[in-house]
Design a protein that fits this description.
Chain A: This is Tr-type G domain-containing protein. The complex is a heterodimer of chains A (675) and B (442). By secondary structure, chain A is α+β, with helices and mostly antiparallel strands. Chain A contains 18 helices and 33 strands. Helix content of chain A is 30%, strand content 30%. In chain A, β5 (195-201), α8 and β6 (229-230) form a beta-alpha-beta unit. Chain B is an alpha/beta fold. Chain B contains 16 helices and 17 strands. Chain B has a nine-stranded mixed sheet with strand order 9-10-8-7-6-5-4-1-11, with helices on both faces. Chain B has a three-stranded antiparallel sheet with strand order 12-13-14, with no helix packed on it. In chain B, β7 (194-200), α6 and β8 (224-229) form a beta-alpha-beta unit. Classes of the chains: A alpha+beta (675), B alpha/beta (442).
Chain lengths: 675, 442
């Protein structure tokens, strides 16, 4: 860590430093820097590192990396988990710099966040891996850092990352203290029985209160305060101590090079030229280029074309050994060949497969359709490629009268859906229509005939259009989640009201220190899936945090509500709602439709109906006059331009009966908002 | 015509004898427009760019001239007329329209000179309609007789309102009394060939006050009325006033009501609506404007003027959309250097031409008849292009649109909603006419 840098930064007034930090964020929002560009920068940076290899980075040269020099007891696999914005990626940047994996420059901002959407939103979506060489007490260690996503939606990614590790760095912001996601991530690591190293970050901030955070950690996680390491990832303060703790406290992986080769696929990426790049954790034996390996899941054999470390860029090596983490390219061409959670072994030495992962459970569903049906094929391949890199998205073909052929996609949460959509647009230049997010309801069937038809007494309803009628159902069920909210106690009242309005039941409430409260609520998932998080943030001035875990299903009084335009139901807008919420939801949808449908030549009635009963109505009055007064020779050019633009816009509208609906109305209308 | 201000805009009456020719109306000159050789004739629009002052609602191309360069302007208008007539190779000019700006600020000799230039080069019938936009000021009124002597045989008077207060706030340089006198004088000189422009949807105007005003106007006007709804244009003084809340405009419902009531009132007084904004009795329609709506060729002369014609003179085969240079000084320089100030030329493809024919034609109450359409689209008739479309069927069923053995047109209700109908028709037209199809000869 550079002393001069510390000095300079300390000299900067706090406000300006914060501002600088913010500005860097903002800057990256505007830039269209792609993943490839960064890749190049790293590549260029590598030789520089080699020549100036210092105490910390002795083994940078490509060919000089001899991984056999790293027996299992010199390997540590760890990941960093934290609430969003607590500085996970910044710490990762520092660790990378200090171990010489990347050059130390001002520009290292969230190096592991490769995706444009990650940089724009300041979140990590996709776990990245980096192998670091670290010299500790005269010994060379191989530290494998697996970066993790930082949002509730991506806890599945977190658990995948955790499975390849023996320890975690649990980062907590010295100012904000424990947040909802800190709690969630802690339990993921705790249940996986990993060593947990609490790290209190941002101690350089003026309002930092590491003492208080230490007692929170003691109280909530039962970890002695002495174990906490206080750091400033931004300035590099005490980051060395973190590296030492990784070596000293985290146990080496339990694996033997003497065993047959056995590796877990914990992540995979798709490369246009080389096919599937699988990230693996080697649990036993060794593997080298040219080896014939088999995927336990498919039983298919492949030849290893390339393997190596991720530093964080791919760095080919001759072999990978037990306990190590790296990448492997073995001619897998198809999405389905690189199952995450799959076990790889040598063809001549079959092994028992490792326990895989449970497939990620989609909790939010939405229809996706191409803007124009001619873009269907293009969109299909874009979705396929993206789902290869994000296997937590479930894909099902679907078609809609208004929107044509498309898909019903399942996501882990709403942010996950937005991120997916944004990646689709940014990385594949595809524009899509996204329909109302819904949650998977269940119905317990009462009719013997239907039970026979479905092969079971309980069916899952993903598409509201398939909601079975009350008469054939003995009970409807809705998915529940157990939500954790952490907040300064001044907001407790407002938050309790919000939760109550969302049909939530309070389960627990604890003060984690004298000002902060941790509340647990049982929510119907449907109630939090759209805008709950935004509201929570805004009514707590951004101080409250929220996370949730699935909590099974509960009986609920559900009904199907249709939206009618001049009497014609709009299939895309059919919603399953709780009876208590039917009127407010229906009214809000009608109002928003009224705002997003342009006036037409006739009156448009917008109605929300349950069965044949209309429960809400809005009217868009007909145009009485719409004609330009003057149009002579000199006006034609301008007039034509205007009309042609309108004609183009018309092509993009969807017709429901005789009503023309702009495509984005579907999206804007279904975003639930409270007034 | 183009850059004409909102001042005067309508024109009247079947052209008659040129003033100096004397005699009476014998035949409608626009008849010759129906001849199959569309490229052989054109109408002529001449733009006078200067105004005395800026009206609060006008965002048009006009200039408050500091010095008098009327003479140079006249010379250049003549010169450009000559050049463009030669380029178009038309043999007949069917009508002439002097618009602006405020052309009634120009000396009558200007118009005489231009008309003479036209007559020297091509056939300009003595019966051809020659319209002049007039601001109803005392100065304008006093020159009307001289304008007639110069060859003008139709006046379009920018009355706009009969409420003095409104005229003031709109920034007009006349009052209602002057307007009435100008109308009277114009009617004396060109009976049956005087048009008045009025504006509705003005700030503070109510449906009732509008009706009163209109009946008052109908007592004094001739046989042609143009009705324009005041539209808020960005960059005008009025726009700013509305923005900051100093002035409120009548709501959409109110202006719609004003329009419909005016249509009925005019009808009761024997005026037939023949276009969205134009009404005439005794068939005193503006032939010049009708030729725009029928898609005939026109030549635009003067700063910022627009034209549509085939430049046969340089071997052209397709119609071009042409625009002249906007700023008078630059335009003058260009005309002096190369004989014309054409700034932009855009060849119109077959589809584009049909789009213009459609958009303009549908503004007329008689719409587009089959024969007329066939002239521009010999391969695809109106029925083929529009008959199959579901959207068109709906418009037909709802009574907005009529497609029968006469042709395609709006109903009385449909005409008020034309801009909602046209995009649908354009989508259909594009679907039916491949843009790659061979370009028409026009």
């Amino acid at each position: 860590m550079s002393f001069s840098m510390v000095k300079r930064c300390c000299g900067t007034p706090l406000f300006r430093r914060v501002l600088q930090f913010k500005m860097c964020r903002r800057k990256s929002q505007d830039s269209n820097v792609t993943y490839t560009v960064f890749r190049h920068r790293w590549m260029k940076a590598l030789p520089v590192l080699c020549s100036s290899s210092r105490r910390l980075s002795t083994q940078s040269d490509k060919d000089a990396v001899d991984l056999s020099k790293f027996p299992v007891d010199r390997i540590r696999n760890f990941c960093i988990i934290a609430h969003i914005d607590h500085g996970k990626s910044t710490l990762a940047d520092r660790l990378l710099e200090m171990t010489g994996a990347i050059a130390k420059t001002e520009k290292n901002k969230q190096v592991l966040d490769k995706l444009q959407v990650e940089r724009e939103r300041g979140i990590t979506v996709k776990a990245q891996t980096a192998s670091l060489f670290y010299n500790h007490e005269g010994q060379q260690y191989l530290l494998n850092l697996i970066d993790t996503p930082g949002h509730v939606d991506f806890s599945y990614e977190v658990s995948r990352s955790i499975s390849a590790c023996q320890g975690v760095l649990l980062i907590v912001d010295a100012n904000q203290g424990i947040q909802a996601q800190t709690v969630a991530n802690f339990y993921l690591a705790f249940e996986a029985q990993l060593t947990i190293i609490p790290v209190i970050n941002k101690i350089d901030l003026k309002n930092a209160d590491p003492e208080r955070v230490e007692s929170q950690i003691e109280k909530v996680f039962d970890i002695p305060r002495e174990e906490c390491i206080r750091i400033s990832a931004k300035l590099g303060t005490n980051v060395e101590k973190v590296l030492q703790a990784v070596v000293n406290r985290i146990p080496p992986p339990i694996a033997s090079t003497e065993d047959p080769f056995k590796a877990l696929v914990f992540d995979s990426n798709f490369d246009h030229y080389r096919g599937v790049v699988a990230n693996i954790a080697v649990f036993g034996g060794r593997v080298k280029k040219g080896d014939k390996i088999v995927s336990a899941h498919l039983g298919k054999a492949y030849e290893v074309n390339e393997l190596g470390l991720l530093r964080p860029d791919e760095h080919p090596t001759q072999k990978l050994f037990a306990g190590q983490v790296g990448y492997i390219i073995a001619g897998m061409k198809d999405v389905k060949e690189a199952q995450i959670g799959d076990t790889l072994y040598l063809q001549e030495q079959p092994v028992e497969a490792l326990p895989g992962f449970k497939p990620a459970k989609a909790m939010v569903f939405a229809g996706m359709y191409p803007m124009d049906q001619s873009e269907y094929t293009g969109l299909r391949s874009a979705i396929e490629r993206l789902t290869l890199n994000d296997s937590s998205v479930t894909v099902q073909r679907d078609s809609s009268l208004a929107l044509g052929a498309g898909w019903r996609l399942g996501f882990l949460g709403l942010l996950h859906m937005e991120v997916f959509n944004q990646r689709l647009e940014q990385e594949y230049n595809a524009s899509v229509i996204v329909t109302a997010p819904t949650v998977p309801y269940k119905a317990v069937l009462s009719s013997a005939k239907l039970i026979k038809e479905h092969g079971s007494g309980e069916i899952t309803i993903v598409n509201p259009a398939q909601f079975p009628d009350r008469s054939v159902v003995s009970e409807y069920l809705e998915p529940m989640v157990l939500g954790t909210i952490l907040t300064p106690d001044v907001y407790t009242g407002k938050i309790m009201t919000l939760c109550l309005n969302r049909r939530a039941v309070q389960k627990n409430m604890v003060y984690i220190d004298d000002q902060r409260v941790m509340m647990k609520y049982l929510f119907p998932l449907n109630e939090i899936v759209v805008d709950f998080y935004d509201l929570l943030k805004s009514l707590s001035s951004g101080y409250a945090s929220f996370d949730y875990e699935n909590a099974g299903y509960q009986a609920a009084d559900l009904i199907k509500m249709d939206i009618l335009l001049n009497g014609r139901p709009v299939e895309e807008l059919t919603t399953v709602v709780h009876r208590e919420r039917a009127y407010s939801t229906g009214k809000a949808m009608c109002e928003r439709l009224k705002d997003s449908i342009p006036r037409q030549m006739f009156e448009i009635a917008i109605q929300a109906a349950i069965g044949s009963k209309v429960i809400a109505r809005e009217t868009i009055k007909a145009y009485r006059k719409n004609v330009l007064a003057k149009c002579y020779g000199g006006d034609i050019t301008r007039k034509m331009k205007l009309l042609k633009k309108q004609a183009e816009g018309k092509k993009k509208m969807r017709r429901i009966g005789n009503v023309e609906v702009p495509k984005d109305a579907f999206i804007s209308v279904l975003k639930r908002k409270e007034k | 015509m183009m850059t004409r201000t909102f001042t005067a805009v309508s024109r009247v009456f079947p052209p008659r004898l040129r003033h100096f020719s004397g005699g009476e109306v014998t035949k409608d000159v626009s008849e010759c427009a129906a001849s199959p050789q569309i490229t052989e004739q054109a109408s002529l629009y001449v733009h006078w760019p200067y105004c005395l002052r800026r009206c609060s609602y006008c965002n048009f191309n006009k200039y408050i001239s500091k010095e008098n360069n009327d003479h140079i302007m006249t010379q250049c208008l003549q010169r450009e007329t000559e050049t463009l007539l030669r380029l178009s190779q038309v043999s007949c000019i069917t009508s002439v329209f002097f618009g602006g700006g405020t052309p009634s600020l120009a000396h009558p000799s200007t118009f005489a000179a231009i008309l003479e230039t036209v007559s020297r080069q091509v056939n300009l019938s003595h019966e051809a309609e020659v319209t002049l936009e007039v601001n109803p000021t005392p100065a304008g009124k006093s020159r009307l007789e001289d304008y007639c002597r110069a060859g003008v045989n139709r006046f379009s008077i920018g009355v706009q309102s009969l409420q003095d207060e409104d005229l003031k706030s709109l920034g007009r340089d006349h009052d209602s009394h002057e307007a009435l006198q100008t109308i009277e004088e114009a009617r004396r000189l060109c009976p049956g060939r005087v048009s008045v422009d009025v504006m509705f949807g003005r700030p503070k105007q109510t449906v009732e006050s509008w009706e009163t005003e209109l009946s008052e106007l109908l007592r004094v006007c001739d046989d042609h009325v143009s009705l324009y709804q005041l539209t808020l244009e960005r960059g005008t003084q009025l726009f700013k006033q509305v923005e900051c809340g100093a002035v409120t405009m009548p709501s959409e419902d109110v202006t719609a009501e004003m329009y419909q009531r005016a249509r009925k009132t005019l009808h009761q007084h024997g005026f037939q609506q023949y276009e969205v904004s134009n009404f005439a009795r005794h068939n005193s329609v503006s032939h010049h404007n009708i030729s725009y709506w029928k898609g005939n060729q026109y030549i635009g002369v003067g700063p910022g003027a627009h034209g549509r014609f085939v430049p046969l003179g340089e071997g052209g085969v397709v119609r071009e959309a042409r625009t002249q240079t906007l700023e008078p000084d630059v335009w003058i320089r260009e005309v002096r250097q190369r004989g014309h100030g054409t700034r932009r030329r855009l060849p119109l493809g077959h589809l584009e031409l049909l789009e213009e024919v459609l958009v303009m034609g549908m503004r007329m109450t008689e719409g587009i008849n089959h024969k007329h359409w066939e002239m521009f689209s010999p391969q695809n008739g109106l029925d083929e292009v529009f008959g199959e479309s579901i959207v068109v069927q709906e418009l037909l069923q709802s009574g907005q649109l009529i497609l029968d053995d006469r042709g395609l047109r709006c109903s009385w209700e449909g005409l008020a909603l034309l801009d909602s109908i046209l995009p649908a028709l354009l989508v259909e037209l594009e679907r039916q006419i491949s843009p790659k199809a061979s370009r028409g000869p026009l």
